[in-house]
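Side project, low priority. Logging it here so it doesn't get lost.
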Amino acid sequence: MKNKIYLITEYYHENQNTTGYLLGKLYGFLNQQSDIDLVLIAKKDDNCPKHKNAHFITSPKLNKKSLLKRLLYEIIISLKFFWEILRNVKKGGIVFTGTTPIFLLMVIFLTKKIIGYKWVLLVHDVFPENLIAANVLKKNSFLYKTLKYFFDKIYASADQVIVIGHDMKELVYGKTNLNNIHVVQNWIDYDDVEVQSKLNNKILKELSWNNSKSIVFQFFGNIGRVQGVDIICKAIQKMHYRHLAKFIFIGDGAYASILENQINELNLDNVIYWGPLDQKEKSTGLNACDVALVTLTEGMLGLGVPSKSYFTMAANKPILAIMDVDAEVSCMVKEHNIGWAVSPNNVDALAEKLDEISSSFNQLVLNSPRDVLIKNYAEPIAMQKILNIIRKLDGYES
């Protein structure tokens, strides 16, 4: 008899975003297992495949720039997931979810008690601690303390927990005090990312930067409240060898308009905001540089791991990690010698590192990021780890 697995997610396909890419890969892998009867419960998207073994819900359009509208969206979509779960999930099954939308965790906590199923939780975001880092809530506020009390109980109610970094494992363990937490770094199919030469990159060609001897630094991805990209602009102003470097910012998010204004104020020919890029053009975006900038603002230790790090590695680009020195990506970069790490909010240190890279890049000896990805973090490695976690659940029929 096949085992019933319910994959419940807001996003489920690479056309949507990085979460959709990751869970889409997981859907494809689990759907191929002969001992698994997989059911997908997801948000409807007309630009994505309509799988036969799926139940779709509709939702209003997400507005990331308005906190109030985002809150309303989160409530509506979570209520719809609640009813869909009650209608379709059966007792004794295994439910696999991520951490978005935020109130889905509450829905799972409640429906798990009502229906009686096992829960595997994939943690990409740690609530409500990430709201402190995003300056949405104050740590001493009554609302934060109340949310933390309830969300700690919710995280502790999962039968198995998967986190995407060792720093996150420590943080989540502090919430649950349980030994059911497993580290599985974000999985990337390296064949999905083409390796391009700087000379042939479409974006750099349009900028006439493709044959420049200047070192091109790039930020590519979500430009949100916790990325801390403003430090890059501040550091550029303090560089001594700024004329040896070029900077391109690609992406969109809640902080994008502010970043664009900061770049306009710099008024430098070698610093530009390119804007958002379609998911289908990710290889072009990832290859539009010599060095990728990956950031997390101060206070984000254990709260998130930028998935762009692994996509960057697939494009064989070294990483300058601007984040806590103990963060997952910082440790990975140092361990495998595929880049550099600088603490967040240390403008002088970042400016110094940018100068160092710009003036000596061609003399630096680094390992191949793509080779490191293939050996340690590729998709088959992560998929097998997840399958093993699912199969260890009590009641799973072999």
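Brief comment: The chain has 15 helices and 13 strands.
Revisit when time allows.
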